[in-house]
Amino acid sequence: MRLVYRISTALVALVLIAAPALAVEKVRWKMAMSWSSTLTPFATAPIELAKIIEEMSGGDFTIRVEGAEKHKAALGILDMTKGGQYEMGHSASYYWKGKDITTVFFCTVPFGMNADEQNAWFYKGGGMELMQKTYDKFDVLSFPGGNTGVQMGGWFQKEIKGLDDLKGLKMRIPGLAGEVFAKLGVNVTNIAPGELYTSLDRGTIDALEWVGPAMDIKMGFHKIAPFYYTGWHEPATELQFLINKKAYDKLPKEYQAMLVTAMKAVTADLFIDNFAGSADAWEQMKTEFPNIQVKTFPKEVMQAMKTASDELYDEYAAKDASFKEVLDSQRAYTKKARAWTNISEYNYIKTLEELAD
Ligand code: CA
Protein backbone atom coordinates (compact mmCIF):
# COMPACT_ATOMS: atom_id res chain seq x y z
CA MET A 1 0.00 0.00 0.00
CA ARG A 2 2.79 2.31 1.00
CA LEU A 3 4.64 1.39 -2.19
CA VAL A 4 1.58 2.12 -4.31
CA TYR A 5 1.20 5.44 -2.55
CA ARG A 6 4.82 6.27 -3.20
CA ILE A 7 4.60 5.33 -6.86
CA SER A 8 1.46 7.34 -7.40
CA THR A 9 2.99 10.34 -5.57
CA ALA A 10 6.02 10.06 -7.77
CA LEU A 11 3.82 9.84 -10.86
CA VAL A 12 1.90 12.94 -9.83
CA ALA A 13 5.16 14.78 -9.27
CA LEU A 14 6.41 13.59 -12.66
CA VAL A 15 3.25 14.73 -14.40
CA LEU A 16 3.46 18.11 -12.64
CA ILE A 17 7.02 18.57 -13.77
CA ALA A 18 6.26 17.38 -17.27
CA ALA A 19 2.99 19.31 -17.64
CA PRO A 20 4.42 22.67 -18.73
CA ALA A 21 6.63 20.94 -21.27
CA LEU A 22 3.66 19.02 -22.67
CA ALA A 23 1.69 22.24 -23.14
CA VAL A 24 4.41 23.87 -25.20
CA GLU A 25 3.66 23.76 -28.84
CA LYS A 26 5.58 25.59 -31.52
CA VAL A 27 3.24 27.76 -33.52
CA ARG A 28 4.40 29.85 -36.46
CA TRP A 29 1.83 32.27 -37.89
CA LYS A 30 1.82 34.99 -40.50
CA MET A 31 -0.20 38.20 -40.48
CA ALA A 32 -0.90 40.46 -43.46
CA MET A 33 -1.60 44.17 -43.02
CA SER A 34 -3.43 46.60 -45.30
CA TRP A 35 -0.62 49.08 -44.64
CA SER A 36 3.07 49.17 -45.36
CA SER A 37 5.34 48.10 -42.49
CA THR A 38 6.51 51.69 -41.94
CA LEU A 39 3.04 53.26 -41.76
CA THR A 40 2.85 54.00 -38.05
CA PRO A 41 0.86 53.96 -35.83
CA PHE A 42 -1.37 51.59 -37.85
CA ALA A 43 1.46 49.13 -38.48
CA THR A 44 2.72 49.51 -34.91
CA ALA A 45 -0.22 47.56 -33.47
CA PRO A 46 0.38 44.27 -35.33
CA ILE A 47 4.15 44.53 -35.00
CA GLU A 48 3.84 45.12 -31.23
CA LEU A 49 1.31 42.30 -30.98
CA ALA A 50 3.81 39.89 -32.53
CA LYS A 51 6.51 41.03 -30.08
CA ILE A 52 4.24 40.61 -27.05
CA ILE A 53 3.12 37.14 -28.16
CA GLU A 54 6.69 36.02 -28.74
CA GLU A 55 7.75 37.23 -25.29
CA MET A 56 4.70 35.81 -23.50
CA SER A 57 5.20 32.41 -25.10
CA GLY A 58 8.98 32.35 -24.59
CA GLY A 59 9.43 32.28 -28.35
CA ASP A 60 7.16 29.30 -28.96
CA PHE A 61 4.35 31.26 -30.63
CA THR A 62 5.57 33.66 -33.27
CA ILE A 63 3.74 35.77 -35.83
CA ARG A 64 5.55 37.10 -38.90
CA VAL A 65 3.97 40.41 -39.86
CA GLU A 66 3.94 41.33 -43.55
CA GLY A 67 3.12 44.80 -44.87
CA ALA A 68 1.38 45.64 -48.12
CA GLU A 69 4.78 46.34 -49.72
CA LYS A 70 5.40 42.60 -49.55
CA HIS A 71 2.09 40.86 -50.27
CA LYS A 72 0.79 43.59 -52.65
CA ALA A 73 -2.83 43.00 -51.66
CA ALA A 74 -3.75 45.87 -49.34
CA LEU A 75 -7.46 45.33 -49.90
CA GLY A 76 -7.26 41.52 -50.00
CA ILE A 77 -6.71 40.87 -46.28
CA LEU A 78 -10.10 39.29 -45.59
CA ASP A 79 -9.73 36.85 -48.53
CA MET A 80 -6.18 35.92 -47.56
CA THR A 81 -7.12 35.32 -43.90
CA LYS A 82 -10.22 33.36 -44.85
CA GLY A 83 -8.21 31.27 -47.34
CA GLY A 84 -5.51 30.54 -44.77
CA GLN A 85 -2.56 32.05 -46.68
CA TYR A 86 -2.27 34.18 -43.54
CA GLU A 87 -3.59 33.14 -40.13
CA MET A 88 -4.17 36.79 -39.24
CA GLY A 89 -4.83 40.13 -40.83
CA HIS A 90 -4.86 43.78 -39.76
CA SER A 91 -7.17 45.94 -41.78
CA ALA A 92 -10.42 47.92 -41.56
CA SER A 93 -13.88 46.35 -41.56
CA TYR A 94 -15.44 48.87 -43.96
CA TYR A 95 -13.12 47.69 -46.74
CA TRP A 96 -15.41 44.63 -46.98
CA LYS A 97 -18.66 46.46 -47.63
CA GLY A 98 -18.70 45.01 -51.17
CA LYS A 99 -18.89 41.53 -49.61
CA ASP A 100 -21.34 42.43 -46.85
CA ILE A 101 -22.60 45.95 -46.21
CA THR A 102 -23.10 45.23 -42.50
CA THR A 103 -19.30 45.15 -42.03
CA VAL A 104 -19.19 48.98 -42.12
CA PHE A 105 -20.60 49.23 -38.59
CA PHE A 106 -17.55 47.54 -37.10
CA CYS A 107 -15.27 50.26 -38.41
CA THR A 108 -17.14 53.55 -38.35
CA VAL A 109 -20.12 55.13 -40.07
CA PRO A 110 -21.01 58.71 -41.05
CA PHE A 111 -22.50 60.66 -38.13
CA GLY A 112 -22.00 57.61 -35.89
CA MET A 113 -20.57 57.18 -32.41
CA ASN A 114 -17.30 58.68 -31.19
CA ALA A 115 -14.52 56.38 -29.96
CA ASP A 116 -15.59 56.30 -26.30
CA GLU A 117 -19.16 55.51 -27.22
CA GLN A 118 -18.20 52.91 -29.81
CA ASN A 119 -15.75 51.15 -27.49
CA ALA A 120 -18.51 50.94 -24.90
CA TRP A 121 -20.81 49.51 -27.57
CA PHE A 122 -18.24 46.91 -28.66
CA TYR A 123 -17.34 45.65 -25.20
CA LYS A 124 -20.48 46.34 -23.15
CA GLY A 125 -23.27 46.97 -25.63
CA GLY A 126 -23.34 43.76 -27.69
CA GLY A 127 -21.10 45.02 -30.50
CA MET A 128 -18.57 42.18 -30.29
CA GLU A 129 -21.31 39.56 -30.59
CA LEU A 130 -22.90 41.31 -33.58
CA MET A 131 -19.51 41.64 -35.25
CA GLN A 132 -18.74 37.94 -34.85
CA LYS A 133 -22.20 37.01 -36.12
CA THR A 134 -21.44 39.06 -39.25
CA TYR A 135 -18.00 37.47 -39.76
CA ASP A 136 -19.04 33.86 -39.07
CA LYS A 137 -19.89 33.36 -42.73
CA PHE A 138 -16.28 34.14 -43.69
CA ASP A 139 -14.92 31.55 -41.20
CA VAL A 140 -12.86 34.26 -39.53
CA LEU A 141 -12.85 35.89 -36.11
CA SER A 142 -12.90 39.66 -35.97
CA PHE A 143 -11.60 41.84 -33.12
CA PRO A 144 -11.19 45.59 -32.66
CA GLY A 145 -7.75 46.61 -33.95
CA GLY A 146 -7.21 50.19 -32.76
CA ASN A 147 -9.23 53.38 -33.02
CA THR A 148 -8.21 56.65 -34.66
CA GLY A 149 -10.90 58.74 -33.00
CA VAL A 150 -12.55 61.42 -35.16
CA GLN A 151 -10.87 61.53 -38.55
CA MET A 152 -10.39 64.69 -40.58
CA GLY A 153 -12.73 65.25 -43.53
CA GLY A 154 -9.81 65.29 -45.92
CA TRP A 155 -7.56 67.36 -48.16
CA PHE A 156 -9.17 69.38 -50.94
CA GLN A 157 -7.58 71.29 -53.80
CA LYS A 158 -10.45 73.79 -53.87
CA GLU A 159 -12.78 75.18 -51.27
CA ILE A 160 -16.25 73.64 -50.94
CA LYS A 161 -18.56 76.62 -50.62
CA GLY A 162 -21.80 74.82 -51.37
CA LEU A 163 -23.37 71.68 -52.81
CA ASP A 164 -22.51 72.71 -56.39
CA ASP A 165 -18.81 72.39 -55.60
CA LEU A 166 -19.30 68.68 -54.88
CA LYS A 167 -20.71 67.91 -58.34
CA GLY A 168 -18.15 66.02 -60.41
CA LEU A 169 -15.46 66.27 -57.72
CA LYS A 170 -13.16 63.24 -57.88
CA MET A 171 -12.48 62.01 -54.37
CA ARG A 172 -11.01 59.00 -52.60
CA ILE A 173 -13.27 58.17 -49.67
CA PRO A 174 -14.13 54.61 -48.60
CA GLY A 175 -17.02 53.11 -46.65
CA LEU A 176 -20.59 54.36 -46.48
CA ALA A 177 -19.29 57.94 -46.53
CA GLY A 178 -18.27 57.34 -50.14
CA GLU A 179 -21.84 56.38 -50.96
CA VAL A 180 -23.12 59.50 -49.20
CA PHE A 181 -20.83 61.68 -51.30
CA ALA A 182 -21.82 59.77 -54.44
CA LYS A 183 -25.46 60.67 -53.73
CA LEU A 184 -24.37 64.32 -53.72
CA GLY A 185 -22.68 64.03 -57.11
CA VAL A 186 -19.10 63.26 -56.09
CA ASN A 187 -17.16 60.88 -58.29
CA VAL A 188 -16.03 58.48 -55.56
CA THR A 189 -13.17 56.01 -55.61
CA ASN A 190 -11.23 53.92 -53.10
CA ILE A 191 -7.50 53.81 -53.70
CA ALA A 192 -4.98 51.75 -51.73
CA PRO A 193 -3.00 53.83 -49.23
CA GLY A 194 0.30 53.49 -51.11
CA GLU A 195 -1.06 55.24 -54.22
CA LEU A 196 -2.84 58.17 -52.56
CA TYR A 197 -0.15 60.84 -52.77
CA THR A 198 0.54 60.28 -56.46
CA SER A 199 -3.18 60.27 -57.27
CA LEU A 200 -3.71 63.63 -55.57
CA ASP A 201 -0.48 65.10 -56.95
CA ARG A 202 -1.23 64.10 -60.54
CA GLY A 203 -4.83 65.24 -60.38
CA THR A 204 -6.30 61.73 -60.77
CA ILE A 205 -8.37 62.85 -57.79
CA ASP A 206 -9.25 66.37 -56.54
CA ALA A 207 -9.61 65.44 -52.90
CA LEU A 208 -9.03 62.58 -50.52
CA GLU A 209 -9.52 61.70 -46.94
CA TRP A 210 -7.00 59.57 -45.09
CA VAL A 211 -6.93 59.74 -41.29
CA GLY A 212 -5.76 62.79 -39.36
CA PRO A 213 -2.56 64.74 -38.72
CA ALA A 214 -0.54 61.85 -37.20
CA MET A 215 -0.82 59.80 -40.37
CA ASP A 216 -1.53 62.47 -42.97
CA ILE A 217 1.76 64.23 -42.25
CA LYS A 218 3.71 61.16 -43.35
CA MET A 219 1.80 61.02 -46.60
CA GLY A 220 2.68 64.63 -47.42
CA PHE A 221 -0.81 65.73 -48.51
CA HIS A 222 -0.37 69.08 -46.73
CA LYS A 223 2.34 69.96 -49.23
CA ILE A 224 0.04 69.62 -52.24
CA ALA A 225 -3.49 70.56 -51.07
CA PRO A 226 -4.42 73.77 -49.20
CA PHE A 227 -7.78 72.95 -47.59
CA TYR A 228 -8.06 70.60 -44.61
CA TYR A 229 -11.69 69.82 -43.80
CA THR A 230 -12.97 68.70 -40.43
CA GLY A 231 -14.64 65.32 -40.06
CA TRP A 232 -18.18 64.00 -40.26
CA HIS A 233 -17.69 60.69 -42.04
CA GLU A 234 -15.43 58.64 -39.73
CA PRO A 235 -16.02 59.68 -36.14
CA ALA A 236 -14.41 56.57 -34.60
CA THR A 237 -12.55 54.46 -37.16
CA GLU A 238 -11.81 51.12 -35.54
CA LEU A 239 -9.20 49.01 -37.29
CA GLN A 240 -9.60 45.26 -37.25
CA PHE A 241 -7.74 42.08 -36.42
CA LEU A 242 -8.91 39.12 -38.45
CA ILE A 243 -8.07 35.54 -37.49
CA ASN A 244 -8.62 32.40 -39.52
CA LYS A 245 -11.08 30.45 -37.39
CA LYS A 246 -9.62 26.99 -38.04
CA ALA A 247 -6.15 28.22 -37.11
CA TYR A 248 -7.48 29.84 -33.93
CA ASP A 249 -9.38 26.70 -32.91
CA LYS A 250 -6.18 24.66 -33.26
CA LEU A 251 -4.27 26.94 -30.86
CA PRO A 252 -3.65 25.75 -27.29
CA LYS A 253 -5.91 27.63 -24.85
CA GLU A 254 -2.91 29.50 -23.41
CA TYR A 255 -2.04 30.93 -26.82
CA GLN A 256 -5.65 31.91 -27.45
CA ALA A 257 -5.65 33.82 -24.17
CA MET A 258 -2.34 35.50 -25.02
CA LEU A 259 -3.67 36.53 -28.41
CA VAL A 260 -6.93 37.99 -27.12
CA THR A 261 -5.14 39.87 -24.32
CA ALA A 262 -2.38 41.17 -26.59
CA MET A 263 -4.88 42.36 -29.22
CA LYS A 264 -6.70 44.40 -26.61
CA ALA A 265 -3.44 45.89 -25.32
CA VAL A 266 -2.14 47.03 -28.71
CA THR A 267 -5.60 48.30 -29.64
CA ALA A 268 -5.50 50.63 -26.63
CA ASP A 269 -1.93 51.64 -27.54
CA LEU A 270 -2.92 52.58 -31.07
CA PHE A 271 -5.59 54.96 -29.81
CA ILE A 272 -3.05 56.67 -27.54
CA ASP A 273 -0.33 56.74 -30.23
CA ASN A 274 -2.64 58.24 -32.80
CA PHE A 275 -3.98 60.90 -30.44
CA ALA A 276 -0.51 61.94 -29.27
CA GLY A 277 0.85 61.75 -32.80
CA SER A 278 -1.95 63.95 -34.12
CA ALA A 279 -1.34 66.62 -31.50
CA ASP A 280 2.37 66.65 -32.42
CA ALA A 281 1.80 66.52 -36.16
CA TRP A 282 -0.84 69.23 -36.19
CA GLU A 283 1.43 71.55 -34.26
CA GLN A 284 4.21 70.88 -36.77
CA MET A 285 1.99 71.18 -39.85
CA LYS A 286 0.46 74.50 -38.94
CA THR A 287 3.89 75.90 -38.06
CA GLU A 288 5.65 74.74 -41.22
CA PHE A 289 2.69 75.31 -43.53
CA PRO A 290 0.81 78.32 -42.11
CA ASN A 291 -1.24 78.61 -45.31
CA ILE A 292 -3.19 75.41 -44.60
CA GLN A 293 -6.80 76.43 -44.14
CA VAL A 294 -8.89 74.33 -41.78
CA LYS A 295 -12.49 74.35 -42.96
CA THR A 296 -15.75 72.83 -41.86
CA PHE A 297 -18.23 72.03 -44.62
CA PRO A 298 -20.95 74.69 -44.91
CA LYS A 299 -24.18 73.94 -43.09
CA GLU A 300 -25.99 73.34 -46.41
CA VAL A 301 -23.47 70.61 -47.27
CA MET A 302 -23.48 69.08 -43.78
CA GLN A 303 -27.27 68.96 -43.78
CA ALA A 304 -27.34 67.30 -47.21
CA MET A 305 -24.77 64.73 -46.06
CA LYS A 306 -26.79 63.98 -42.93
CA THR A 307 -29.99 63.55 -44.96
CA ALA A 308 -28.23 61.37 -47.54
CA SER A 309 -26.73 59.23 -44.74
CA ASP A 310 -30.10 58.68 -43.10
CA GLU A 311 -31.60 57.73 -46.48
CA LEU A 312 -28.78 55.26 -47.10
CA TYR A 313 -29.22 53.64 -43.68
CA ASP A 314 -32.95 53.25 -44.29
CA GLU A 315 -32.44 51.87 -47.82
CA TYR A 316 -29.99 49.20 -46.65
CA ALA A 317 -32.04 48.38 -43.56
CA ALA A 318 -35.12 47.79 -45.73
CA LYS A 319 -33.39 45.11 -47.82
CA ASP A 320 -30.93 43.56 -45.34
CA ALA A 321 -32.09 42.18 -41.99
CA SER A 322 -28.60 41.89 -40.50
CA PHE A 323 -27.80 45.49 -41.47
CA LYS A 324 -31.00 46.55 -39.73
CA GLU A 325 -30.14 44.56 -36.62
CA VAL A 326 -26.75 46.26 -36.20
CA LEU A 327 -28.11 49.68 -37.17
CA ASP A 328 -30.85 49.39 -34.53
CA SER A 329 -28.30 48.27 -31.94
CA GLN A 330 -25.98 51.22 -32.70
CA ARG A 331 -28.79 53.74 -32.80
CA ALA A 332 -30.18 52.61 -29.46
CA TYR A 333 -26.74 52.55 -27.86
CA THR A 334 -25.81 55.96 -29.28
CA LYS A 335 -28.91 57.49 -27.78
CA LYS A 336 -27.99 56.25 -24.31
CA ALA A 337 -24.23 56.89 -24.59
CA ARG A 338 -24.60 60.36 -26.17
CA ALA A 339 -26.78 61.53 -23.31
CA TRP A 340 -23.82 60.80 -21.03
CA THR A 341 -21.23 62.28 -23.45
CA ASN A 342 -23.25 65.47 -23.61
CA ILE A 343 -23.16 66.17 -19.90
CA SER A 344 -19.55 64.96 -19.46
CA GLU A 345 -16.88 65.27 -22.20
CA TYR A 346 -18.78 67.62 -24.46
CA ASN A 347 -19.96 69.90 -21.69
CA TYR A 348 -16.48 70.08 -20.18
CA ILE A 349 -14.84 71.25 -23.44
CA LYS A 350 -17.72 73.58 -24.31
CA THR A 351 -17.64 75.26 -20.89
CA LEU A 352 -13.90 75.85 -21.13
CA GLU A 353 -14.27 77.24 -24.66
CA GLU A 354 -16.88 79.69 -23.42
CA LEU A 355 -14.58 80.78 -20.61
CA ALA A 356 -11.85 81.50 -23.15
CA ASP A 357 -14.13 83.82 -25.19
CA1 CA B 1 -10.23 57.54 -43.40
Describe the fold and architecture.
Helix 5 packs across helix 13, helix 7 packs across helix 12 and helix 12 packs antiparallel against helix 13. Helix content is 52%, strand content 14%. About 2% of the residues have low confidence. The chain is globular, with a radius of gyration of 23 Å. The protein is of the alpha/beta class. Among the domains are: 183 residues, Bacterial extracellular solute-binding protein, family 7 (D-Maltodextrin-Binding Protein, domain 2); 31 residues, no CATH class. The structure holds calcium ion.
| Strand arrangement in the largest pleated sheet | 7-6-8-5-9-11
Overall SS class: alpha/beta
Oligomer: single chain
CATH fold label of the domain at 9-148 and 235-277? D-Maltodextrin-Binding Protein, domain 2
Nearest-angstrom radius of gyration? Answer: 23 Å
**Main sheet properties:** 6 strands, mixed
Low-confidence stretches: 11-16
What's the average pLDDT?
Answer: 93
Helix content: 40-55%
Looking at this protein, list some descriptive labels.
alpha/beta; 13 helices; 5-stranded mixed beta sheet; single chain; D-Maltodextrin-Binding Protein, domain 2; binds calcium ion; 6-stranded mixed beta sheet; 357 residues
Write the layout of secondary structure elements.
Layout: H1 2-23, E1 27-33, H2 44-56, E2 61-66, H3 68-71, H4 77-83, E3 88-92, H5 115-124, H6 127-135, E4 140-147, E5 154-156, E6 170-172, H7 175-183, E7 187-189, H8 196-201, E8 207-208, H9 213-219, E9 227-229, E10 238-244, H10 245-250, H11 253-288, E11 293-295, H12 299-319, H13 321-356
Parallel strand pairs: 1-2, 1-3, 6-7, 6-8, 9-11
Antiparallel strand pairs: 3-10, 4-10, 5-8, 5-9
Helix pairs in contact: 2-11, 5-13, 7-12, 9-11, 12-13
The structure holds calcium ion.
